């Protein structure tokens, strides 16, 4: 009898551990899918801001790959963490629309500053003033440019913060993560003449460097360096 009880207990423990391991795997996969969604969402947001799309962003994550309306309920039933996240998918974000609309209206002016190399994109998803004799010689123009940079960066930070707010179940999705995602996306979209700063040495730098394999640049391809995109290969 004792042998039977021991055997049953061992089987139960193994079953529990197996479930725990499978759940952990599902959690990891869930996190990966969600981060990929933020990247996909960034493309939609930037398409709207840059005039490639007339559809304003709503802040709603898309269905995970392979999760159709048919199998979605089944996945949610067996994965309570995914089900908890599903509640946030229904939340629209008027705030995101407002921010994106302001950035869309401002985009032509920001684009003009980039073409003149007066501002550059840094590795955190914001723009920075670049050294310029033209601005130093014209105080009013410099003040106007600084104001524009300040307004643009304020809206970008509000946008990134809103994205984090819309994904409360993702402990790994921080403001820093969203900033880097948008910085990388803007580098992918870089046009000739635009200036970018590369991240410090590490995983982010390697990812940015991989993007630049398809682009021609001026400057040192090294951590923390500013480079200028001159064309595509």
Topology at a glance:
Elements: H1 2-49, H2 72-78, H3 80-89, H4 94-115, E1 119-121, E2 127-129, H5 133-136, H6 139-165, H7 175-188, E3 195-197, H8 203-211, E4 215-218, E5 226-232
Helix pairs in contact: 1-7, 2-3, 4-6, 7-8
The main sheet comes to: 3 strands, antiparallel
In which range does the helix fraction lie?
A: 55-70%
Total DSSP helices: 8
Percent of residues in β-strands = 5-15%
Strand ordering within the main sheet = 3-5-4
Number of strands: 5
Mean pLDDT: 80
Morphology? globular
Q: What structural class results from the helix and strand content?
A: mainly alpha
User: Which regions have little confidence, pLDDT < 50, spanning 5+ residues?
Assistant: 12-31, 61-90
What gap, in angstroms, lies between the N and C termini?
74 Å
SSE arrangement, N to C = HHHHEEHHHEHEE
Question: What descriptors fit this protein?
Answer:
mainly alpha; 5 strands; 8 helices; two-stranded antiparallel ribbon; 233 residues; three-stranded antiparallel β-sheet
Give a description of the structure.
With 233 residues, this protein is mainly alpha-helical. It folds into two domains: 2-89, no CATH class; 94-232, no CATH class. It is 61% helix and 9% strand. The chain has helices at residues 2-49, 72-78, 80-89, 94-115, 133-136, 139-165, 175-188, 203-211; strands at residues 119-121, 127-129, 195-197, 215-218, 226-232. The strands form two sheets. Strands 3-5-4 form a three-stranded antiparallel sheet, with no helix packed on it. The chain has a two-stranded antiparallel sheet with strand order 1-2. Helix 2 packs across helix 3 (80-89) and helix 4 packs antiparallel against helix 6. The model is unreliable at 12-31 and 61-90 (pLDDT under 50).
